[in-house]
Design brief:
about 90 residues, alpha+beta, 3-stranded antiparallel β-sheet, about 25% helix, binds zinc ion
C-alpha cells in the first residue's frame, strides 16, 4: 500500500516536468557560435594586461578601475576587461 502511493506521486512529478519542457523548447535550436575575447594591454609598459581591481564605481554608467599586472599602472574603464564578444 505504501509502495504504490509513492510510485503514483513520482509518476505525476515526471509528467508535469515533461510538459513544461515541451512548451519551453518548442522552436528552440542549439547552434555553435564563435566567441572572441577583448583584452586591454597596458598603455604605459605595453607588456602587462589591465585587470580589474575588484572595485566597481557605482556611477551611471558604472566604472571599473583596472591595474596593470606588470607595472601597476591604474586606469578606470567603462567596461571590465577581458570581456567576450560573439559573432
Ligand atoms: Zn603596465
Amino acid at each position: 500500500m505504501e509502495r504504490s502511493s509513492r510510485k503514483n506521486s513520482y509518476g505525476k512529478t515526471i509528467s508535469k516536468s515533461l510538459l513544461i519542457f515541451k512548451i519551453n523548447n518548442n522552436m528552440s535550436e542549439v547552434r555553435e557560435v564563435k566567441v572572441k575575447q577583448v583584452d586591454e594591454k597596458c598603455p604605459v609598459c605595453q607588456n602587462g594586461w589591465m585587470r580589474p581591481t575588484g572595485i566597481v564605481l557605482t556611477s551611471n554608467p558604472p566604472q571599473f578601475p583596472h591595474k596593470c599586472q606588470k607595472c601597476g599602472y591604474e586606469q578606470i574603464y567603462s567596461v571590465r576587461y577581458p570581456y567576450v564578444i560573439t559573432e
